[in-house]
Structures are given as structure tokens and as C-alpha cells.
Amino acid sequence: MSSNRLKNIQSTLLSDNHYILKKYNFQYLMDNGTWVNQMREVYDRGDGAGILLYNKEKQTIILIKQFRMPTYLNDNKDGFIIEICAGLLDKDNPEACIIREVEEEVGYRIKTVKKVYEAYSSPGVMTEKMHFFVGEYTDTMKVNDGGGLDSEHEDIEVLEIPFTEAIDMLNSGKIEDTRTIVLLQYAQINRLLD
Ligand SMILES: Nc1nc2c(ncn2[C@@H]2O[C@H](COP(=O)(O)OP(=O)(O)O[C@H]3O[C@H](CO)[C@@H](O)[C@H](O)[C@@H]3O)[C@@H](O)[C@H]2O)c(=O)[nH]1
Ligand SMILES: [Mg+2]
């Protein structure tokens, strides 16, 4: 991490209540050669991982539905949103994280996953980099009902749906989570279920 277009970076902690929100004051060298003062608030929750689980034989995928307060505060009527299974890395490596999340959130014990993308979630605001995976599941891999951790009051509904139905939902605007859109489009482009 170094740049000759930045100097005098100073940070002030605004909140470490759960994750970390800091204010950064710094000088930035514009393309026209002038130094300007800038201030940015940056939210640090670490990195994340998400996965599209698919079953070629059944032509199905697994998504989840859960309450997300930030969407409720915007325009999502009841605050429930359909997403891929995903979680924060919590110091795990991305593969280990996503394998753990799959078992906790949707109840399948999978062994192999394929990394397809690595991308910043919201580069103007968060430090978070997201690791995107796809992985095959079968009925025999099911070990529990999923639903998330009771200790964290996770309340996750598991949706096993035909891939074609998911694509219809994508095209009709019912999928409103960017990470989910990315992986459904990946599956379409790469004919993942063929
Ligand atoms: N007490 C408290 N708990 C929190 C707070 N924010 C999150 N949590 C809890 O922290 C846990 C995080 O669960 P994970 O499954 O590890 O993370 P995630 O929220 O699903 O994260 C995924 O989606 C995010 C997008 O909304 C991604 O940003 C992230 O990378 C990952 O893909 C959940 O139990 C959630 O309730 C908070 O401010 N306070
Ligand atoms: Mg999660």
C-alpha cells in the first residue's frame, strides 16, 4: 500500500461499536498536478465471501432470504431480501469461510468450491473485498436445516429453486442484491448448469 499521489494521511476513529468507521483526512495529487485536501469516511468490516450453490442434476440453485435493515431504511418494503449464501471472513481464508457459511446458513457440508471473482463491494465507502465462489451441492451433502447461528439471531430462510426461476426473478427485478446478480449472471454466461 503506497502511492506518490497521497500524503499526510490522518485518521480519526468515529465508531468501533461493532465494526470500524474512521474519518480519513489526506492530501491527494490531482491529475493536473495540484495537491488538494480530501476527507473520506471509510467503513471497515473486513472482507467477505459469497457462493452460488448449484445442482446440475436437479437444475436448482440455493439462495437465502433474510432481513437486512439497511434495505428497509431505503425502499425495500419489508426489509427481506434474496441473496447468495455469504459471510464475513472473520480471519478465515475465503475458502474456509464460505464452506463454514454454507453449513451454517443453508445446512450443506460441501468440500470443493471454485473461486470466480474477487471484487470490491462498494469502493467509495467500504474497505471490503468480496470473494465470489460457485459450488455444487447434492442432497447427500445435507447435514442440517441451515438458518444461521442462533447465538447471533440469524434468521435465514433457505430457498432451493429451479435455476430458470432464479433467472426469471433476476430479469423481473426481484433480485436486488448485487452479489447475487453477479453470480447468477456468471452462471448464465458460463452455462454453469449445462
Ligand atoms: N451486534 C451486531 N451484530 C451485527 C452487526 N452487523 C452485523 N452483525 C451480525 O454479524 C453477523 C454477520 O453474519 P455473516 O453471515 O458473517 O455476514 P453477512 O452479514 O451475511 O455478510 C455478507 O453480506 C454482506 C452484505 O450485506 C457483505 O458485506 C459481506 O461481505 C458478506 O458477503 C450476523 O449475525 C449479523 O447479524 C452490528 O452492527 N451489530
Ligand atoms: Mg451471512
From TrEMBL:
Keywords associated with the record: Hydrolase
Matches recorded under InterPro entries: NDP_pyrophosphatase, NUDIX_hydrolase-like_dom_sf, NUDIX_hydrolase_dom
Keyword ATP-binding listed: no
KW Hydrolase (keyword) present: yes
Domain of life the protein comes from: Bacteria
Domain Nudix hydrolase stretches: 44-183
Description of how the protein assembles with itself and partners: Homodimer.
Protein name, as recorded: GDP-mannose pyrophosphatase
